[in-house]
Write the structure tokens for this entry.
Amino acid sequence: DQQVKQNSPSLSVQEGRISILNCDYTNSMFDYFLWYKKYPAEGPTFLISISSIKDKNEDGRFTVFLNKSAKHLSLHIVPSQPGDSAVYFCAASTSGGYNKLIFGAGTRLAVHP
Amino acid sequence: KAGVTQTPRYLIKTRGQQVTLSCSPISGHRSVSWYQQTPGQGLQFLFEYFSETQRNKGNFPGRFSGRQFSNSRSEMNVSTLELGDSALYLCASSENTGELFFGEGSRLTVL
């Protein structure tokens, strides 16, 4: 039972354009969502998060949008850079779930010049 | 601050053996959680420890166990290894904010 789904295993974007990574979830108890980036042979690194009381959070080139009614969130990267090429994981947790994150399977982003 | 340190980074075991992996969290972080990453499965939660107590547990068999010491360092153990246990095991520490800081992982290969 996949509670967090990233249906696109890969995405290819040209440098300078927008990258949009999508994530769907099924558990309505999730109230905190995060995006992590992972390079090969490294552990995931935190990118950005959003609480369920918000519908948008920005940090520099990264913006996360949350649509609670659709149980959908997306990560926008503008402008995309070659260094952004990595695997992006969406994760969710519940209040009281402490640090138990439920991760999606990841989307591999390739940004080409 | 030093990051999360995991040892060993790579190891090879045979079926039936057991393995112990170690994790040193970021100084001051009392929460340590463990995740398993296999191809196509993303990261799956194993368990979380806070102040030496297991606070949360994922859906893994009892062969997977862990513990946390008074200095917040943590170990996880897998007994009676199976081929399917081959994975990258990631440890993460947190100040209990929901934001996890991951180590580089221990890659286990079971032959």
